[in-house]
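Changelog-adjacent note: as of this version, every example in the card shows the full chain rather than a window. The one below runs 262 residues end to end.
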Amino acid sequence: MTYLTPHLPFSGSTPALPPPKSYLIISDTLQSPAHWALYHLFAAAISEQRKIVLVDFRNDGRASLEAVLRKLGTTLPSQPDLFTHIFPSSFPNDSPSAPSLFTSNDAPTLRPTYQVISESLDSGALVVLDGLSDLVNIGFSVPEVGRFVRAVLSLVRNSRASLVSTLHADELLSSSVSTSPPSNSLDLLERLLRIGSIWWRVQQLSTGRSSDVHGEISCHILSPPTEDRHGWTQVPKANPLQYRLEERTVRVFPKGTGRGYL
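Full-length structure tokens:
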């Protein structure tokens, strides 16, 4: 079920999915993870029979994804030409689906992961880099992760595919003005926003917890892959959409209408 399409449609012939050559950045917080937004994209890609290349830096595993999508009424394809699951590993191994994140000298490297993505990419595919923050947490520098994303984006655009990445950005919630350098997560987010097409910002409610609302999402147009900005929906941070996670779906609604809508 593509529950975000009525609220955040993309331009082009497939409004549920980012158009070719575009780059969608999804930031979230620890209290309001954006897994549900990814599930929407996965369900839409499966419905359109577009290949998914999932680079699982979180190491959540295929079984978890299969179980959630099944609850949402979608079956994860078993064919490798429709779904490729890449799970980079911190340990040396011989699996082509688990490229090593460290060299034999324990130096961080993303070259093997890039190579596997390159070999898995098809025209029109949806490429998802899930959990870029986790790379920084295990020792990768922000510039190194930024260069990796730029390289993957170049691959994606050459193949007329679409790129999606996720990362945590809890520091965005801070309202204090600081003269100190930005944290690693904010530094990485700022680098990605410079090359992105659109940004979905997911976070918990600024007013605190609610039994009816689990978080909010705003949408910011950065640099669409074409000069035509018509059809690109923008939802400002000051008036975001809100959502509620349910057993077999996600309810999305305008701010302040949750109790009546649900």
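Structural remarks: The helical segments are 35-47, 62-71, 111-120, 132-137, 142-158, 184-195, 258-261.
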